[in-house]
Design brief:
With 263 residues, the chain is of the alpha/beta class. Strand 1, helix 1 and strand 2 form a beta-alpha-beta unit. The radius of gyration is 18 Å and the shape is globular. The chain has a seven-stranded mixed sheet with strand order 3-2-1-4-6-5-7, sandwiched between helices. It has one domain: Spore Coat Polysaccharide Biosynthesis Protein SpsA, Chain A, CATH 3.90.550.10. The protein has eight helices and seven strands; from the N terminus they run βαβαβαβαβαβααβα. 37% of the residues lie in helices and 16% in strands.
Length: 263
């Protein structure tokens, strides 16, 4: 594990954006204001996920203001696939991601950074709270979905994380380089969880840290057919379990990342 020091603490922050005309300007203002307060070298990569509004033009306007801002243009591939596109373009030894609505302010990275000396992936958490206040404004339906996914994830996999889907993480670049070729899920919604599972299987150390998270019920569309969506996620998790089992039997992982490995 490469030691993280003040001299090599360089970040590439990936922000996926799809039709974010209303939210992206405020988020970028907050990010660039935070950047002024930290001594790290960094870049901010906005990945436009095939937006149909002015998201790309807004990104370019921030590029003109600050050379650390970059734009990657994608077709509409989904949030996590957009993040992976940004990872491929990252220049620094640490790659991070955050959401375009700034649900977690970039200053929360300062909670995660101290753990990078001993861990390969540090992920924020909306479920673990520590001494932080509880998340407010989240509907009972969303709480139920989040809790259900967390429990299924812990049931199927050994990765010791309770909130694998949070969009606020820091990875060592080597983790991304090793794990991304092993990703197989076609379900964009569980790729964040898949990265953690397979990183754990490869022997990388993962730390989960509570972060301040401001929930906006309007920041994500509630699905028209939630039962179908939930069923799709459940099926995707089952497929991921079988995939981890197959890869483990082929000798890909140091330890089985899935539970019930005797099956």
């Amino acid at each position: 594990m490469t030691e993280i020091t003040q001299q090599n603490l360089g970040f590439s922050i990936i922000i996926p954006a799809y039709n974010e005309t209303d939210r992206l300007p405020k988020t970028m203002d907050q990010v660039l204001e935070w950047v002024k307060t930290v001594p790290y070298e960094l870049e901010i990569i906005i990945v436009d996920d095939g937006s149909k509004d002015d998201t790309r033009d807004i990104a370019r306007s921030f590029m003109a203001k600050d050379s650390r801002v970059r734009l990657v243009e994608e077709t509409h591939v989904g949030q996590m696939n957009a993040i992976l596109s940004g990872f491929k373009k990252a220049r620094y030894p640490l790659v991070a991601n955050m959401e375009a609505d700034c649900a977690t302010h970039p200053r929360e990275y300062e909670r995660l950074i101290p753990y990078l000396s001993n861990f390969d992936v540090v992920t924020g958490s909306r479920i673990l709270r520590g001494d932080l206040p509880p998340i407010e404004g989240k509907s009972p339906f969303r709480r139920m979905i989040s809790a259900g996914f967390s429990r299924l994830y812990q049931l199927f996999f050994k990765c010791d994380v309770v909130d694998p889907q949070v969009g606020f993480k820091i990875y060592r670049r080597e983790v991304i380089e090793k794990v991304v070729p092993l990703l197989t899920s076609k379900h964009d919604g569980i790729k964040s969880a898949e990265i953690l599972v397979k990183a754990a299987g490869l022997g990388y150390k993962i730390k989960e840290v509570p972060v301040v998270y401001l929930h906006d019920e309007n920041s994500r569309l509630v699905p028209n057919f939630p039962v179908v969506v939930v069923a799709g996620v459940f099926i995707a998790l089952i497929k991921l379990w079988f995939d981890c089992r197959r890869q483990y039997k082929k000798g890909v992982f140091k330890t089985p990342p899935h539970r019930f490995s005797f099956l």
